[in-house]
Amino acid sequence: MSLLGAAPAGTPAPQPRLRLRLRPAAETAVRRGHPWVYAERLRERNREGLSGELAVVYDRNDRFLALGLYDPDSPIRLRVLHAGKPVTVDDAWGRARLAAAIARRTGVHDARTNGLRGVNGESDGWPALVVDQYAATLVLKLYSAVWLPRITALTRWLCEALRPARIGLRLSRNAAPAFELAGFQDGQNLWGDATDASVVFLEDGLRFWSDVVKGQKTGVFLDQRENRRRIGAAARGLDVLNAFSFSGGFSLHAARGGARSVPDLDISPHALEAARRNFALNAGDAGIAAARHASIQADAFEWLERSGDRFDVVICDPPSLAKREAERAGAIEAYHRLAMHSIARVRPGGLLLAASCSAHVTPEEFYAAVTEAAHRSGRSFGEPVYTGHAPDHPATFDEARYLKAAFLPFEPPA
Q: Which residues are catalytically annotated?
């Protein structure tokens, strides 16, 4: 039986396959690999669709175009699973697609790093679904109710492919109501031992603590791994400010790299406590033990603007400032303002790392905001280095390219 094609629970009787046709622009986008079809871009359907139902899309010439999961309660009405030639979306298909995602992570997971993203949503062919791995614990995060009829299959595929000790479920705000009606809860265990909410995992040999039950996203932001490495490699003998520090990942890498001091700046006492816990976990490392680690609990926007302190390296990695398109213009202004205040905290010859995780702000818009702030500061600076997603966070379409960072080196005094 086709697991992904099975009718969702509550279907009163077998119905004809849900068939869709799209408007020309949407048809072209799907043919080119875009994984979303918005409600207003549907041209016709043969009947009302149910949440999570497998729908077949035909093109204007009545030829097969794609398969996707129907989402009647979302502006994204169809989440595309496959486009091109017809395929059978069944148990073997699910196993093979998961195996392909795991194979793309070859070289990321090793003896020193066992915290990584195992499935990155649409960019790995799994729309509205993320799997993060923390040592032997997997966290399955779902962003749509389309996966509700398939929880059992997903759990089984993950167990077979990765042999975890535990699988936890995390639900987005949009998906939670439907799952809760079916008896699921955000943070519950789907598989294995659920005695402890916390997990310790490795990143480049550093030990990190993660709350996989109540922590932000799936517990820790794994997407900045490559940028943390860069900071660690450049930090020897320097004072490094980590603004919007969360659990102190940049600070840990900087301290191990020989930083002189690594103050964490965050408004959340829970985030600062998590950072202190991570430093305690790594106290046996000589560099981390030698670095002066401090916690500054304050609004980072206000502190950066008002403080007179200066540092050799300033990291400015705020949470998303544009969660919807209507907030894009305001976010760009905020990034410019943050960059201005962060630059004022950088000593001559120092370095600014400015980052953005706002998908609605393009890389070009973000980089322009940062470099314009640098020009307005009147200070000379070298060629910026721009970075994006870590290898385990592939982004195959524009809306998925949320992470961007700019390393901006300032010239020493003449």
A: 357
